[in-house]
Structures are given as structure tokens and as C-alpha cells.
Amino acid sequence: MDSIFGYKVKYKEDGSYKSMYKIGEFIIYGNNGVCEVIDVGSINISGINKDKIYYTLKQIYENGSIFAPIDTRVFMRGVITYEEAQQLIERIPFIKEVECSEKNGKLLENYYKKFLESHECIDLLSIISSIYDKKDNAINSGKKLGQIDEKFMKIATGLIHDEFSVALGIPREEVQTYINEKIKEIKKNRVI
């Protein structure tokens, strides 16, 4: 077992290496959403260190590729499994909203960013749940949801829909309907 740029890698007999993520795996890369690992190795681009090892990532729901050094400090993790997605959906009705009555825009933005930086689905679902509650209260008071709330609702919802789409094997456009139906089923079964 050796280390390349701080990552433990195991060299194979042919001199190649086994990296942290394999070609064909789906991962979360920062706040870029779901990416597929297309290649692992050096890249042949002018001005790029050819001795450095990169992941070539293709964003699933956006155009373009990302070349990420395997020693990047950008957050990466594998996409949740089907079972994990199901467990998270079952928890949605019981997620406690995160209380934030902050009126200062910058402080509110920083508050939401902390949840995004965890890159955990449960934190994204907490943001969504909280902002939905805030939106309902605003509508009931004859007001509109603030721009910062709208912005982070869109980001968190997009990240959840992207990851759940891959985990559940359904189109991204169907994720919200799927979640809503599952929640109705959960609530119905709890009443009985």
C-alpha cells in the first residue's frame, strides 16, 4: 500500500493503481451535484502537470467535465444507495425544521451555507423543510418568501433531486412526485 498525494492507493502488478473512486461510479463533487467518474489518471492538457492523477468527472445534469486532482480538498463522496434514499424519505415527515429567524441577509446566507457544506442529505432535507415552513408562514401572512430563502431552497432541492434520481433510478423530474407519494403512504399507514 502506497500513498499518492496523501491518498492510499494499491498498485496492481501492471504498475497501475487502484484509486478511491472507480470509473463508472457516481459521486457528489462539492456543490456541483452528481458526477460520474469517467476516467482516473493523468490528463493530457497543455499547462497541466502530467505527473498528477486526476478524476475526470462528467456532471450528470449539467454540461461539461471537471478535472479534479485525486488529492483535491473539494468534498467528494459516493452517491447514497437506493436503501439509504428510502430511509431518508421515510424520515422526511419527522424532520425538525431548523429555526432561523435571521433578518440580516448575509447572516442568513451563512447559516444556510453551513448546512450545504455538510453535503449530507439529511441537512439538505432540513433546509428544504424549514424553508417550506417559512414559505407557508409568509403566504399565510400575505407576504413572499425572501430571495435568499428562495435561492437556498432551489440549491438544496436541486441537490436532493439529483442525488435521489440516481439513487432511485428515476428521472430527476419525477423525484418530487415520488417523494410526495411515499410520504402520503407513510402518513396513511401511521393512521391505521
UniProtKB/TrEMBL annotation:
Domain CarD-like/TRCF RNAP-interacting: 21-72
Domain of life: Bacteria
Extent of the signal sequence: none
InterPro entries hit by this protein: CarD-like/TRCF_RID, CarD-like_C
Any matching Pfam family: CarD_TRCF_RID
Stated name of the protein: CarD-like/TRCF RNAP-interacting domain-containing protein
